[in-house]
Task: inverse folding
């Protein structure tokens, strides 16, 4: 279980997250939705150790502190927004870097096999430069690279960004399969409809705060959208 | 392996590197077999020293993504360290040489704050930093002999019946040390760490996400590069037997390796070595006979021509040629 209490973080003197407290249950998928600038990506980056923070983050009761590489060793793996694959390297080299954390190196071959069976397209293109992949393939590569790191908690940032609907569906089918494998997943998504569909828990963030936390089954999409757009409605 | 997918040739795949190793060995043995005179062996020895620094420079540039204008610092520190350890403390030369490499690593540790800088900022920081050591070597005259220079540096010893201080002995030693450094370079590069280092050059942010401690890896590469450069500085000191600050810390030791590595192809393992030998011999044999004073200007022309005609350097050109032949056969 991953718990965060009174989390405050941001970039230099700009605070983005104000006092965020959330709990991510083990083996479940938590979706975080919210408009642009809500702090969703900042939350994931903070969890991944890329940004310093104040507050308390605990994994299974133990405090979680450290740089991104320490957290990767402990199984907190970020699949960043906009893919961030290594463009000048082949698909397979990208995947091999996913296995960079020491605890993942021994199981490299079997993990590679698994990623290729999840994403046959990546196997077909294993020798191709990542920079020449389509958007959907690059997103699959980013997720595949994350899986090579044997995640205990997988943080996925906006996987649908800029993808055609049919590809989005394909990506979410994979996310659904990962959930079935009992990987704890934190998903940040703007596409509320599909994101709430795969989730166990849903949180709505706006302006660096959590506005609503509900089990996915109870989420009323209309009400969610009203809250989502509330500020715009008020200022109109 | 599906054959229709365009596949990327990995850097230095085994078959072509075996070809290059073979060529390099034959070339290295040639001067001895042909009974080259002392003058020519002396030129080759200097060329191999330059080759070692070029290799170290290219390692930092290619694997660490850092352009250094300050390798003269590591070279000079290595020279003085080994000379002083052997002459003043009486350490055996074969011990003082690797220790000099370690001391050069110590000097590079002071550079670690500059690793936060990238591109031209790092290059300028290390350029300024390298001046510190020249000044130290001049001012600490009680230790180094100051500007008057430092003489009476012990010679290389005789090992297994081979007098390393003789021209042919020094030559063999340098061929072996250069080959060892090239081997270390190739091994680092083919390892997962090498892949991670190339990824840092691609996108440092993304490497953090996959759990690569990029600062640590870059620091390691700086240390390795400084070690190799220091060792060659030390060997050079024992071979020539005389040091002065303006020589040991001369900008030449920063600039010539850059020219050699870029000329030969700094992204390859053998490029910097071949580049150094060709550049040095060209400079000493051809350029000097054309323009006695200021002959280095011809190196500038040579480098400019190379960058225009083959931006990947001599080895890139050779690889393209070999590949073209192979594709034509297929």
Result:
């Amino acid at each position: 279980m991953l718990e965060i209490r009174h989390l405050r973080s941001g970039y230099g003197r700009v605070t983005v997250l104000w006092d965020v407290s959330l709990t991510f249950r083990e083996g479940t998928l938590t979706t975080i939705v919210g408009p642009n600038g809500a702090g969703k990506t900042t939350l994931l980056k903070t969890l991944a150790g890329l940004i310093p923070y104040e507050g308390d983050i605990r994994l299974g009761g133990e405090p979680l502190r450290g740089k991104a590489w320490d957290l990767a060793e402990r199984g907190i793996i970020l699949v960043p927004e906009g893919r961030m694959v290594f463009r000048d390297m082949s698909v397979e080299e990208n995947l091999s870097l996913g296995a960079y954390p020491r605890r993942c190196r021994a199981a490299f071959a079997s993990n590679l096999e698994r990623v290729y069976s999840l994403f046959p397209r990546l196997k077909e293109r294993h020798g191709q430069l990542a920079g020449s992949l389509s958007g959907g393939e690059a997103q699959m590569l980013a997720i595949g690279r994350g899986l090579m790191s044997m995640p205990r908690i997988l943080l996925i940032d906006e996987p649908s960004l800029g993808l055609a609907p049919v590809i989005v569906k394909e990506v979410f089918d994979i996310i659904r399969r990962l959930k079935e494998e009992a990987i704890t997943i934190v998903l940040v998504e703007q596409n509320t409809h599909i994101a709430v569909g795969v989730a166990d828990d849903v949180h709505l963030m706006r302006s660096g705060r959590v506005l609503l936390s509900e089990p996915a089954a109870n989420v009323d999409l209309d009400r969610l959208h009203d809250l989502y757009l509330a500020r715009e409605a008020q200022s109109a | 392996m599906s054959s229709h997918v365009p596949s990327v040739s990995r850097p230095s795949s085994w078959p072509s590197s075996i070809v290059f190793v073979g060529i390099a060995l034959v070339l290295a043995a040639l001067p001895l077999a042909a009974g080259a005179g002392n003058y020519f062996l002396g030129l080759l020895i200097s060329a191999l020293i330059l080759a070692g620094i070029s290799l170290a420079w290219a390692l930092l540039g290619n694997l660490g993504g850092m352009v250094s204008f300050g390798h003269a610092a590591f070279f000079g520190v290595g020279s003085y360290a080994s000379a002083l350890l052997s002459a003043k403390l009486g350490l055996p030369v074969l011990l003082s040489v690797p220790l000099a490499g370690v001391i050069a690593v110590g000097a590079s540790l002071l550079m670690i704050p500059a690793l936060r800088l990238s591109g031209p900022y790092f290059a300028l920081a290390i350029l300024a930093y390298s001046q510190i050591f020249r000044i130290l070597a001049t001012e600490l005259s009680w230790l180094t002999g100051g500007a008057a220079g430092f003489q009476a540096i012990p010679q290389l010893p005789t090992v297994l019946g081979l007098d390393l201080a003789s021209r042919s002995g020094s030559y063999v030693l340098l061929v072996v040390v250069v080959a060892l450094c090239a081997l270390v370079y190739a091994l680092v590069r083919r390892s997962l760490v090498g892949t991670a280092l190339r990824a840092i050059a691609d996108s440092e942010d993304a490497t953090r996400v996959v759990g690569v401690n990029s600062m640590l890896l870059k620091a390691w590469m700086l240390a390795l590069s400084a070690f190799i450069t220091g060792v060659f500085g030390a060997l050079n000191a024992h071979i020539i037997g005389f040091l002065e600050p303006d020589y040991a810390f001369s900008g030449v030791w920063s600039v010539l390796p850059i020219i050699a590595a870029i000329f030969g192809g700094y992204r390859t393992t053998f490029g910097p070595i071949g580049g150094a030998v060709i550049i040095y011999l060209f400079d000493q044999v051809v350029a000097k006979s054309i323009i006695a004073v200021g002959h280095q200007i011809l190196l500038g022309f040579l480098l400019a021509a190379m960058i225009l005609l083959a931006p990947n350097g001599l080895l890139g050109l050779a690889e393209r040629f070999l590949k073209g032949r192979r594709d034509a056969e297929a």
In short: The two ends of chain B are 18 Å apart (CA to CA). Chain B has one domain: 2-329. The mean pLDDT of chain B is 85.
